[in-house]
Amino acid sequence: MSRPERPVDPMFVPPLVKTPRRSFNLQRLKRRPSMRSAVIALAVVIAAGLLLPLLAPQDPYDLNSFSVMDNRLPPGERSMDGLTFWLGTDSQGRDMVSAILFGLRVSLLVGLTATAIALTIGVTVGLFAVNFGGKIDALLMRLVDFILGFPSILVALVLLAVMGRGVDKVVFAIVAVQWAIYARIMRAAALVERRKEYVEAAQNLGYSNGRIMFRHLLPNSIGAVLVVATIQVAHAITLEATLSFLGVGVPVTRPSLGLLVANGFEFLLSGEYWISVFPGLALVVLIFSLNLVGDRMRRAFEARRA
Amino acid sequence: MNARLLGTLGLAILPAIVPVSAGAEALRIALASEPTAADPHYHNVSPNNALGKYIFDALAATNADQKAVPGLASSWQAVDDTTWVFKLRSGVKFTNGDPFDVNDVIFTFCRVMNNPQSVAGSFTPYVTAFAKVETPDNLTLKITTKTPDPLIPEKLAEIAILSDSIVPHGEITFDLEKKCGVTGEWPTLAQLNSGEATIGTGPFKLVKYVKGAGVELVRNDGYWGEKPAWDKVSLLPVPNAGPRLAGLLAGDYDLIESPSARDANNLKKDPKFSITTKPSNRVIFLQFDIERDKSPFVETADGKNPFKDERVRRAVSLAIDRNVIVKRIMDDAAAPASQFVPETMFGAQPKPEPLVYDPKKAKELLAEAGYPNGFKLTLHATNDRYINDGQVAQAIAQFLNRVGIQTEVDAMTSSIFFSRRSKREFSLSQGGWGSSFGGASNFLTQFVATNNKNLGTGRSNYGGWSDPEFDAVISQANATIDEKKRSELLQQAARMALKSLPDIPIHFESTIWAFRKGLSYEGRMDQYTLAAAVKPAR
Amino acid sequence: MGTFVLQRLLQSIGVLLAVSLVVFLAVYAIGDPVELLVSQEATELERDRMIQILGLDRPIWEQYLTFLGNALRGDLGQSFVHGEPAIQLIVSRMPATFELVFFALLLACLVGIPLGLVAGLHSDSRTSRIIMTGSILGYSLPNFWKGMMLILLLSVWVHWLPTSGRGETVTVLGVPLSFLTLDGIRHLVMPVLNLSIPNMALMTRLTASGAAEARLQDYVRFARAKGVRPQGIVRRHILRNILIPIVTVVGVEFGQLIAFSTITETVFAWPGMGKLLITSIYRLDRPVVVAYIMMITFLFVIINLTVDLIYAALDPRVKLMERAS
Fold this sequence. Notes:
The structure holds 3 protein chains of 3 kinds.
Chain A: H1 26-31, H2 33-50, H3 96-132, H4 134-149, H5 152-163, H6 167-194, H7 197-204, H8 209-245, H9 257-268, H10 274-305
Chain B: H1 2-24, E1 26-31, H2 46-55, E2 60-62, E3 68-70, E4 73-80, E5 83-88, H3 102-113, H4 124-128, E6 130-137, E7 140-145, H5 152-156, H6 189-194, E8 204-210, E9 214-219, E10 232-237, H7 241-249, E11 255-257, H8 261-267, E12 273-288, E13 298-299, H9 310-319, H10 322-329, E14 334-336, H11 359-368, E15 376-382, H12 389-402, E16 406-412, H13 414-422, E17 428-434, H14 441-448, H15 468-478, H16 483-500, E18 503-516, E19 519-520, E20 535-536
Parallel strand pairs in B: 1-10, 1-11, 15-16, 15-17
Antiparallel strand pairs in B: 2-3, 4-5, 5-7, 6-7, 8-9, 9-10, 11-18, 12-17, 12-18, 13-15, 14-18, 19-20
Helix pairs in contact in B: 9-11, 15-16
Chain C: H1 2-30, H2 33-37, H3 44-54, H4 60-72, H5 86-121, H6 126-140, H7 143-157, E1 170-172, E2 175-177, H8 182-215, H9 218-226, H10 230-268, H11 273-283, H12 286-314, H13 320-324
Antiparallel strand pairs in C: 1-2
Helix pairs in contact in C: 1-12, 5-6, 5-8, 5-10, 5-12, 6-8, 7-8, 7-10, 8-10, 9-10, 10-11, 10-12, 11-12
């Protein structure tokens, strides 16, 4: 039994750092019924976030397309120009349906971009650590421990307090706290992989370090990383929402789901619930389906390994 | 036998009854922001100053409309432009029995100057303006100022008088070199927070001040003025508006500060509660970057700073519908502003020319100024300082977009906003200013007058506006002791500022108090919540 | 063993130094506190005096060295806003946060371990699947939104619980505690629940996977073959074996929760350390922000060290030297 990885995360239980022989079989994964429903849910949310903004009744980022005269209308009310607000309006008169669809897109964009960048950096660092070993490995892993030892929210909070608001800055802050997770998992997976015979054979054949790293170690150990990445997208989205809630995330005129929820907080106690309830629900559906898919992938992954 | 039994019972019951009846005259107030010290000279900010008014008095007091009225001084008079004579109230005692006289006042002036823990000097500018302080007799104070200053009574209303009995001293004179005759250590922040040195003449006595948990006070039965109706007052800091309201509804508090206007409107319908709304001295306004040829957050076709042009500034004002902001964002807890101070304040114009909403005219003016297609702009604002500040900024951005100025909003936490504004990083910023004293002269001197370190004017004139004619009028007003003449000069200055519009007033915030039925509170322009003025309704 | 502890201590000091430098520079970059503290009416002279008193006129490296020197003597500076030592301010807020975190973890264990045992021991049943999916949901609810929904449900709609604050406290040995009064408990319920839900999910999953694994181990099979009753197997063999990771996680989570309570404290206006941190960041109260992060780092270092030591004591297979290198 090994000590659980940090940060402790239900999705990391049990630790995933044992290595696969080959990347897992997607076909088999798709046949599981519970997997299918989770994937469908996720696909629907992502499609809504990416495609539906085109059909949204309003552009909530264009200050000319809504009016403060329509603000804080409850669900079902109509605007002065006859548009029905099915989920009500926010304090600036934005249609909540449009705001949620656009917010979903911002959340997804931030989550996916941050994960992609963090994954690339983390995987590279992990591979380097394994490849060079020794002092470099020890130094890199101390840095990783150091970053993971801190609560991500605090690090991101301080970073953003320094940098100010903006989508790019939020992405930067998330990458800064998340790359270390991939580095650690990649290193662990690649370490095991390197002890395998075929790597030894490749070394004996005189292949270059780079070739072994990217042609052998990378493809054979990336599976564990990708499984974690699904869950980390959910984490990134939660982190973005939380930062926006604390007032250091995306700009106020381009609200993400988290900022929409935060904006509704002060109206909640007066019973104007729709401003924070509906964007929050969208956020939960998105995060839940991502976590569900991630969990099913992990189980399929482990079942195949066993 | 029966009588004895009853007597015994009565004795047994008595201790149980007393706290109950005392409880009935206790007042629990939920504050929106917590005082950071019980030392009245620690930091010159509203929550601290308000707490000071419970425990201490000043030479003058300010009434609900911010006019100076007699306090510890029963009368005063300006003998000439730089000499003031204050007659002190006789028979006043501090809560430790020390009788109040001129020595306490002079000791206080010196303590203000010898308070190294205070934040930013706090009240020192008031005292450094004195050339001499003399005492013809025990209850007469003659203050000579270095320059003519009509605001002396108002300024003295802000300095809480401490008792000189809290330190060892010899003969007290206003001689800062010789520590004014004080021989012991100056009282520290800790001594005043603990209550050890918190000896005042005010309507209440400090029982306990615990940071984060609140302040407990009891009535000062020896108070010289009208005695407050409450034996015991608790001031509880509850920074979030929602919980404050919930506490009022649940009966945890008798009176709360600043419920949100939405909630206040609901409370009006509830027979168990009442509210008071009072216009405050705080104006929300926009400030233009005018001095620079290129401004960092404007993008125009010609590359110039459009705000140099008076017509553009006028257009921005015309584009904003103040009534909609007041109604839809402020829920009517505000008043549209057509000048920088509310009409009831000293030196305000009784009937200012209204700043109207006319988007058509705004577009015409923009076209005339060479911007028929508008320009790009970022409006900077706070999001945690003034009531609904972030939302007001977004609504203003909506209005500006309608006339073709493509406006983005960058709303940030006030600490960053103030730090960046003082470095002049903005092109158009939304600020707020409470004219806590000096009537109409305060805003005009601070924000509109040319920045001049020697004169101390224009300290917040971050846009760099400069108009020598205006400067002449305002500085003349600030040196005029005669009230009628000063008021006229101030009105003239305000008209000049509103013609060239280096700043645009948007609205005046109103302050709301909510309380249980059976109480009444008239409200105060300075937003203080003073338990002595809370009355049980007849 | 001695070498290991020494090595870890030296490492920890290095970490503390690095953190102090990073945090000091970061907080320095946020903004100028003088602008917030000094009244607009203050003259230039007073501004300068203020800047001088706060030590803000000196070069940043000098400010850092002064800070470091004082820190070694246990003085992390005075709060700009409150004029009190930053440590004192933070320590005074500690009981509130610790109380919250303690009950959140307790609740997480009380709910999570039984649920996890059920799920782990019958891992193919419908109940198990519901529990495991439920745990994912519990983990997916963003903390701040969940808190707001609790307020909406339990305060705004049904008026059962107060929305914020600590309620009435009782002082025990100089420490104010909420859980000893009814009013305090009413105030505790929602923040504790809010902080606890993700940890319930964690405990459930941890216990479930441990139990599922232990169930297949030889010693459990032997016990079963010997005829030990199922309750006995769970108590004596399974629970005892999954206790190690649970103890570890409780330790590590304690630190994480103190940090995460920031959000819960913000939503419920709970007067703890996290709330203080957020307010201090907004007010640019540098000494408090730096002191808070230094104290949290210190706490984390201690927790990690303790967890490693306990872990070594519980499981002799862990070689301390290997982990230390």
